[in-house]
Hints:
The protein is mainly alpha-helical. Helix content is about 75%, strand content about 0%. The model is unreliable at about 1-25 (pLDDT under 50).
Amino acid sequence: MAQSGKPETNGAQTRLPIPDFDPPKKPKRNMYALACCFLASMTSILLGYDIGVMSGAIIYIQDEFGITYVQKEVVMGILNVYSLLGSAAAGRTSDWIGRRYTIVLAGAIFFVGALLMGFATNYAFLMVGRFVAGIGVGYALMIAPVYTAEVAPASSRGFLSSFPEVFINFGILLGYVSNFAFSKLPDNIGWRFMLGIGAIPSIFLALGVLAMPESPRWLVMQGRLGDAKRVLDRTSDSLEESKLRLAEIKEAAGIPEHCDEDVVAVSKKSQGGGVWRDLFLHPTPAVRHILICAVGIHFFQQASGIDSVVLYSPEIFEKAGITKTTEKLLATMAVGFMKTVFILVATFLLDKIGRRPLLLSSVAGMIVSLVGLAIGLTVIEHAEHKLIWAIALCIGSTLSYVSFFSIGMGPITWVYSSEIFPLRLRAQGCAMGVALNRVTSGVISMTFLSLNKAITIGGAFFLYAGVAAIALVFFYTLYPETQGKTLEEMESLFGTFSKWRSTLRTLNEKKSEKNGQIQLEGARVANQG
């Protein structure tokens, strides 16, 4: 019997093992990269907690401060508008001080905002707290997806880049649980604990970030090749992948491939000069396509009504016939639970099924759920007596809607938009997507109650279903599959808009041809040996 790695003889013929032809083994999950992305994504708990906790706290705030329904929807949704300032500044801040310390800054700002909200003595004081917390949320929303996309190896980038959305959902669930737990306290104290205790996650966040490395792509942009190589060696699936990633990042940053010094000078252009010009004034067809896809997915994620359902769950369940506060908060906890469960399912499917199939099936399910919810609420509104089937339809459709959202539209928005931008445009491009996301979320959440009065609550959800239907067509037409592509390969996928399928086919053919040449070369070398 031949020894392993030696040629096997059969008469006059010699057969050499050619490992290049063997199917590649799936790499093991890189636990160091997982831990880094886990810590960075904890920033998203801040937004999730605020969304979840405000849905219940507002019941008691409305009673204590005697606010109108317009003031109610403004205080509910204004944090999303305030977060614009944070997300707009986060792109340049993260390029200046690094991704890691931008995460620390996000946690510190939110910590102050949470305390201000908890100690608010009137409506104006509360709005100041919302303003400060909103800036912290804006920073957190932008930086978490960027960091995770830049640290994660290509084999598990979808899984790891979905972490921010996982933690948003976990934060929402924590907010709902906090509502129920502190509802037992006196009304004028309970809501203060609900809001103020949100400062605790930001403390753990600031401590946890000390164990994280800096993003390798940011290190290369600063000319710190030695540090970047060390981070890539630990966060890649193999040393070969680490070298390939470093070479691609150096090329994207304009650093010569043969340059192997630990510290090098990097041109101003690769450090961010002219980014806005390349994004908006003179974009290439590929960048224009990327920008449309990034801002489009962020717009439709919010315009399809997710924040109306999550923020106003108690109102929706009250319209559906659940009137007791405790029962409304329990039903709202079920919403948070379903969102969290299905986002966890999605994290394991992103790198197996792909972004595009999950996104399209998710939006289709959301449309059906929104139509069901709209029908149920409309029937209940016009019914003269309690209809159990309509109440069940409303509850089932609400849970179904958040489940379909969490399995596709929720995580893929952050994964897709963070991985498609070229390195030099990534921070500012992602910041623009997050900015539109927050504007749309603010408009939706600050108009929901007014929309109910104008076209009824059932009409509002019919409207959201119509928006989701437009989104389905938009995604089907313009969005190529990005699963398994390295961040530096992304730009070649885009630029042909609705004709991206032929572009993808051509790229795959070239890649197969190149792999075939490598395998034949390997076989030739083995035979010569």
